């Protein structure tokens, strides 16, 4: 048996890619719940960088237009299709588009998805906190699955108050690692320290390696996580300990400002490595991908990690939220509340 489901729902669509004004609030039919599917009624929807890329039409895994952005949603199962246990109606769940045939789809009051796609949410994880779990899933993949199993004693996290960075910091602290971080404002510095950064250093790239070496007794860090590119990626390489790896998970400022291979050769005695990283690496490894998310849920439920602070807005204010995403100055997670 299914709860009463309206005929129409509110959703956000991109018809023609562009700026925040490309996001249109529309009314659409509530999707039909087919055999083997569940219909999820949204409570809270996460907003983040991949949504901006969908809005701009430049996401590498772009859904077809017109597209509904949104890659994470918490809510309850409102209906089930043929062959699905009706006892699941009312279950609190997290929807991650990493489990769906196409990315996006979560900027809507309802979404119909395969029954095996959502993750059950325990009472210890709120609807609002749940939409930050994707960053923790990604952080686990980067921290624990990207350096060939070598031991990690210390890491460098520039921009340590960011969304992915905050998850990285907490996870590293949970595993007893030393965390060198940077943050650009007093508020972000306080945030980084509160979430587990061991030592804050100045972010200026030219002097960053020297400051990292000083903070680590001259050894350097085992892993350095760069989301900027440009001069920072070269600084990350120079900050590494022997057998260390610099990981590029974004290039917000463009490609590295130098010859990466020659930079590695300049430090040949350390046998350094570089890696680009994307969570899409796990698209074909369902078991590991879901295990990473299940572990993220368990960590948050028992308080080993916590969600970042959030700012909540109604779905109708999605353009304002994207203006804030474009500005890049927000501390914490931006979320949309299904109305």
Question: What topology emerges from the helices and strands here?
Answer:
Blueprint: E1 8-14, E2 23-29, E3 37-47, H1 49-56, E4 72-80, E5 92-96, E6 110-114, E7 119-120, H2 127-130, H3 133-144, E8 154-157, H4 163-174, E9 178-181, H5 186-194, E10 199-200, H6 208-215, E11 221-226, H7 230-238, E12 240-248, H8 260-266, E13 273-276, H9 286-301, E14 310-314, H10 318-327, E15 333-337
Parallel strand pairs: 8-9, 8-11, 9-10, 11-12, 12-13, 14-15
Antiparallel strand pairs: 1-2, 3-4, 3-6, 3-15, 4-5, 5-7
Structure keywords:
Rossmann fold, Quinone Oxidoreductase, Chain A, domain 1, 15 strands, about 25% strand, six-stranded parallel sheet, elongated, alpha/beta, seven-stranded mixed sheet, 2 domains, 10 helices, about 350 residues
